[in-house]
Amino acid sequence: APHLVVWFAPDLRRGYAWWFPLPGPRANVGFGIHRSSGVKVGDMGRIWADLLERPGVQAVLCPDARPEDRHKAWPIPARVDGLPRTAHRVFFVGDAVAATDPMTGEGIAQALVSGRSAADAIGEAGATNPAAAAAVYERAVDHHLTTDHRFARFLAKLLEHPVGARGALRAADTNDWTRRNFARWMFEDYPRALVLTPSRWRRGMFTGPGAFRDDGAGVTAIERTDSPV
Question: In terms of DSSP H, where are the helices of the chain?
Fold first, then answer.
């Protein structure tokens, strides 16, 4: 498949599996799952082997697809609202401040925002006034990241339950607009809690081109099943 594919399945609840293309005849395939699901680290190898055999994944994989290396897993910290952000002249950004999304585990956008906010804070307050710069940075993290983080954590809890997960996907599959913007929202083409923070609203926030592929035939597909993938 030349585009991003995402699968939601009961045994990956509060998580998902993905496929996205890489340069050449290569792709990144994997899954993420929240620790609160009760799945043990030792079980992830079994889930991985089973995942590759599921019909929905087999339909996307090439018949002769082969892994380049052994599969790997690692924990992703997501608690930007609970860690120190500064230590005198040191500002923590990205993973160092656990600025990742608790629903998807993504963190590239958050890392960029936190790094830029730290630089802007120093520029605004001056390098000779670390206390003032720290205060500016703290406010920026709250403005740009904390509300999104808490909103995503709340939504992730809803998705733990079958009724919540099915309801969310049915709503997202209502029409082309909801499908397109669900994909954009899910993978953070705009801030997670944008609709709840009017201070970040801007004209065209839901209608811009976005960081997705548009070939004229649609931009996303949602696969919804009652059985695993």
Answer: 44-51, 55-58, 108-125, 130-141, 147-158, 162-172, 176-186
Burial of 8 (0-12, 13-18, 19+ CB in 10 A): buried
Nearest to 86 by CA among 45, 52, 125: 125
Contacts of 136 (CB under 8 A, 6+ apart): 120, 121, 124, 125
Q: Which two tokens stand for residue 144?
A: 């740009």
Say how far apart CA 169 and CA 67 lie, in whole Å: 31
pLDDT, average across residues 89-104:
94
The pLDDT score that the predictor gives to residue 52 is: 87
Could you tell me which residue, 159 or 198, shows the higher pLDDT?
198
SS3 of 90, please?
Answer: strand
CA dist 91 and 142 (Å) reads: 14
Whether pLDDT at 99 is above 50? yes
